[in-house]
Amino acid sequence: MKQNDVLIVGGGAIGSSIAYHLASDKDFAGRVVVIERDPSYARASSALSASSIRQQFSTPLNIHLSRHGIEFLRTAPKLLDVDLALKEMGYLFLASAAGQAVLRANNAVQRGEGCAVELVEPAELARRFPWIATDGLVLASFGAANEGWFDGPSLMQAFRRAAQDRGAVYVADEVVGLGRRHVDLRTGGRMAAGTIVVAAGAWSGEIAAMAGIALPVEPRRRSVFVFDVRRPPGPTPLTIDPSGVWFRPEGRFYIGGTTPAAGNDPAGAPLEVQHREWDEMVWPVLAARVPAFEAAKVVNSWAGYYDYNTFDQNGIVGRCPAAESVIFATGFSGHGIQQSPAVGRAVAELIAHGEYRTLDLRPFGYERISAGRPIRELNVV
Ligand SMILES: Cc1cc2nc3c(=O)[nH]c(=O)nc-3n(C[C@H](O)[C@H](O)[C@H](O)COP(=O)(O)OP(=O)(O)OC[C@H]3O[C@@H](n4cnc5c(N)ncnc54)[C@H](O)[C@@H]3O)c2cc1C
Q1: CA dihedral in degrees (184, 188, 193, 198; nearest 10)?
Q2: What's the pLDDT at 3?
Q3: Degrees to nearest 5, angle at CA 219 with 216 and 225
């Protein structure tokens, strides 16, 4: 059995960012192997996300992760030789009376962390975004800087390419068994390593279970609808209605979706677009909130999995207390692609230097799960 220093299970944005940051670290001279079962990434979340980035979280650590994310995205063309088509158009969270207190509390956290976010009253909202019908709205929060969207699949591929250029090796195979210092592969082999990183996105819970470790991460299906409107209303931030329906421009079209109703969000549902969600949940809200969207026509759609952390909807990053050679980097629940630069950097630091050197991600460690201490993220879109 060949000895590797680091084996990364999953070569999506998170696994490839870890590989890139490790392979770029001058103090790390080990061999890095990434095991990715599907080099076409047909079902990988990093290829199927809405690829958006925001500062408007309720958890300060998420703000810090995404702040590094936006800085990284701006320098990615130089660092990774890739055009990510970054559009910094902002996020606009809308609140009804029921959501007002949470919006204000989140805004206070964000301002405390130095985010350029402002609370906007309905009259001002109507003046600045005249395409919004303000019925039922009492407040909005607009992020005027450091928020927008980009080409997520290209970011993932750029991390992969750059990791390979720096010596990381990608193996096309499936992990079917996990031990403390080895993995078993579908093709029959076994690979050993000093450190094993589980970065298998929505399938990470399944992989941890192979070693008897309970990891509360499961695949939750989300549908995305690409729609055309006859008359685009004008510059539009990524907008989140109080109902949970969200939308943003995508080229000359728009994309949008929602969170399935509680009780209709099972783990591992087949990756089939839920057209009923458009008919019954998304379109009615869009047509009421943006009159120009009444004539919206779906021109394309897809479904992907959130790597959903059922415990508190935040990333689980760091060593597994029951098996110190195993590191988790997963569970980002709808905000993983924007956090992939910071998470990759942090996990590389942990492996290469034995500690976090830039952002301290210890609060997101597995220990909070065993201790029953959730850090619940309230702004999960
Ligand atoms: C519809 C949708 C919208 C989203 N919108 C956003 C957004 O706007 N902003 C944001 O930041 N995030 C968003 N996300 C979340 C984001 O896409 C994920 O958090 C992120 O891509 C996770 O990256 P990952 O590398 O961990 O997972 P993945 O990209 O899924 O990569 C995991 C890889 O592991 C591989 N794998 C799994 N099991 C095995 C095995 N046994 N052996 C070998 N390989 C294996 C898979 O093939 C896969 O390629 C969205 C997700 C979806 C589905």
Answers
A1: -40
A2: 59
A3: 140
Q: How many domains is the chain built from?
A: 2
The Cβ of residue 214 has, within 10 Å, a number of other Cβ atoms equal to 11
Name the residue with the closest Cα to ligand 1, atom 45. 10
Domain harbouring 296, CATH code: 3.30.9.10
Q: 230: buried, middle or exposed (CB in 10 Å: 19+, 13-18, 0-12)?
A: exposed
- Together in a domain, 344 and 208: yes
Q: Report pLDDT digits (tens) over 157-179.
A: 999 999 999 999 999 999 999 99
Do 339 and 237 fall within a single domain? no
Nearest to 49 by CA among 317, 276, 339: 339
Q: Is 70 helix (H, G, I), strand (E, B) or coil?
A: helix
**80 in a domain, yes or no?**
no
Domain ends where: 273, 303, 333?
Answer: 303
Q: How far apart are CA 372 and CA 336, in angstroms?
A: 23
Which atom from ligand 1 is nearest to the alpha carbon of 338? 11
Question: What's the token pair of residue 357?
Answer: 């050197």
Q: Which of 303, 327, 360 is the last residue of a domain?
A: 303
pTM metric for this prediction: 0.98
* Residue 176: both structure tokens together: 């079917």
Intra-chain end-to-end CA distance of the chain, in Å: 44
Q: Which two tokens stand for residue 250?
A: 């995508």
Q: What is the CB < 6 Å shell around ligand 1? A: 9-15, 35-38, 41, 44-46, 48-52, 174-175, 199-203, 207, 222, 224, 304-307, 330, 332, 334-338
Which ligand 1 atom is the nearest neighbour of the CA of 10? Answer: 34
Domain range enclosing 292: 88-148+221-303
- Tokens representing 258 are 């929602």
Q: Backbone phi, then psi, for 169, in 5-degree steps?
A: -110, 130
Q: Residues with Cβ < 8 Å from 101, sequence gap 6 or more? A: none
Q: 208 and 156 in one domain?
A: yes
CA of 12 to the centre of ligand 1 (A): 6
240 and 355 inside one domain:
no
> pLDDT per residue over 176-202, tens digit each?
999 999 999 999 999 999 999 999 999
